[in-house]
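[Discussion] Sanity-checking designs against the backbone

I'm trying to build intuition for which residues belong where. Below is a structure token string of 96 positions. I'd appreciate it if someone posts a full sequence so I can compare it with mine line by line.
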């Protein structure tokens, strides 16, 4: 499987970000664990996944996964990286 990802760092944590808005694919707990392995995979503290949403006036949503493949609700450093990713990839318009 060929996987395009972005590796990011935020105040001591490292993340990989996957853009599922154009070509979604299935993520399993095993795949996430494999990707998170620091010697045999990419290595990360958390995985951030940008996805499409059906909500009106919302461009996308994102999900956060720990190294064990479990999904979590929030991560401050991850939110900072998520914002930078969507801005750098021109997935959103900055109204400032």
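Best answer:
Here's mine. Compare freely.
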């Amino acid at each position: 499987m060929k996987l395009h990802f972005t590796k990011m760092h935020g105040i001591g944590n490292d993340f990989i970000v996957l853009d599922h808005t154009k070509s979604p694919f299935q993520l399993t707990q095993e795949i996430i664990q494999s990707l998170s392995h620091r010697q045999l995979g990419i290595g990360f503290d958390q995985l951030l996944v940008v996805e499409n949403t059906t909500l009106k006036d919302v461009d996308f949503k994102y999900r956060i996964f720990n190294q064990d493949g479990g999904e979590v609700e929030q991560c401050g450093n991850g939110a900072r990286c998520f914002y930078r990713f969507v801005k750098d990839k021109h997935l959103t318009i900055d109204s400032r």
